[in-house]
Design goal:
Layout lengths: L5 H28 L12 H12 L2 H9 L3 H21 L1 H4 L1
Length: 98
Amino acid sequence: MEKDKLIVGLILGLMLPVVGYAILLEIYELLSSNEIISNEGLSRTFRERTIALLAVCFNLIPFTYFNKKRMYNGMRGLVFPTVLFVMVWLFYFRTSIL
């Protein structure tokens, strides 16, 4: 199966941030429950904003891989969900980032 397909990039671009968000949320909850980190002095949406932004940035991992292997169709497929997630992030957190 050829990996340089638009659909491969689309699937990775949609799944990786969702899975990354869940993993990062669990890590934050674990650290918070063990009192290693706290929310004192931070804005109300800081944790959710940061986790969501880092989850979107997880798309850089396959993007770099596709670029090194010159899999340009996979890169194109990866860009569409990434831009969509960034637009949703900006819309959802628009009041707290201004």
